Amino acid sequence: MSPPDRPYRDRTDAGRRLSGHLSHLSGRNDVVVLALPRGGIPVGVAVAEALGFPFDIFLVRKLGVPGQPELAAGAIAADGTVVMNDDIIAHTHTSPHELEAVIARETTELARREGAYREGRPALAVAGKTVVVVDDGVATGATMRAALSTLRRLGAATLIVAVPVGPGEVATDFPDADSVICPVTPHPFRGVGGAYDDFTQLTDRGVQSILAGWYPPAGNP
């Protein structure tokens, strides 16, 4: 039996398709696109290219449950904002000491990625802007919630979550968002990767290659 058709060939295809759901923003000069590394970067670049908006990365890390790293106990953003998933923490009996260790480790990783990906480039200003926050999909939503909370504190005027795929309740998962765009909400939802023919995990080098094609060399206009 052949595998079922999937909505997206790869992340770039997903971004191009997602841009069609954001076309009502075309022509505005107050919109920026921010992507959550790593998987959100090719999606976000495709959206920004299609609509002609400025693009940047926005660093957030999942706080994985010890022994179950794919299960999110919460997330942390580059400015130190932490969002916790209390239900997951209670269900897995994760202790405060274990959480502290995970937070310390992910804080170090955030700093490493900030240096590796930005290479000295300043972050886009978001104060007063309409910010489209892109990822390759959402499952628990912890990283996206951390990103939204941080961006609201930084003065973003309007926050739009734009993801190619997520669970059916995704529209109500992000109280900090002004709107949520998620074209594909399979039921039952079995993970983000199921929507893609090619869901190869990106490496740091892959991220740097994509960003090098978008940004000018560090230190140049």
Describe the structure.
The structure is a single chain. The protein starts with 10 loop residues before the first helix and ends in a 9-residue tail after the last helix. The protein is of the alpha/beta class and about 220 residues long. It has a five-stranded parallel sheet, with helices on both faces. It contains six helices and eight strands; from the N terminus they run αβαββββααβαββα. It has one domain: Rossmann fold, CATH 3.40.50. It has helices at about 10-20, 40-50, 85-90, 95-120, 140-155, 205-210; strands at about 30-35, 55, 60-65, 70-75, 80-85, 130-135, 160, 180.
Q: How are the SSEs placed, and which strands pair?
A:
Blueprint: H1 11-20, E1 31-35, H2 40-51, E2 55-57, E3 60-65, E4 68-77, E5 82-84, H3 86-92, H4 96-118, E6 130-134, H5 142-153, E7 158-162, E8 179-181, H6 204-212
Parallel strand pairs: 1-2, 1-6, 6-7, 7-8
Antiparallel strand pairs: 3-4, 4-5
Helix pairs in contact: 1-2
CATH topology: Rossmann fold
What is the architecture at the second tier of CATH? Answer: 3-Layer(aba) Sandwich
Tell me about the biggest sheet? 5 strands, parallel
Percent of residues in helical segments?
Answer: 25-40%
What would the average pLDDT be, to the nearest integer? 90
Task: Tally the structural domains.
Answer: 1
Radius of gyration in whole Å, from Cα?
Answer: 17 Å
Q: Give the strand tally.
A: 8
Shape: globular
- Pick out the low-confidence regions: none
CA-CA gap between termini: 53 Å
Strand order of the largest sheet: 2-1-6-7-8
Q: How large a portion of the residues is in β-strands, by DSSP E?
A: 15-25%
Per CATH, the class reads: Alpha Beta
Count the helices. How many?
A: 6
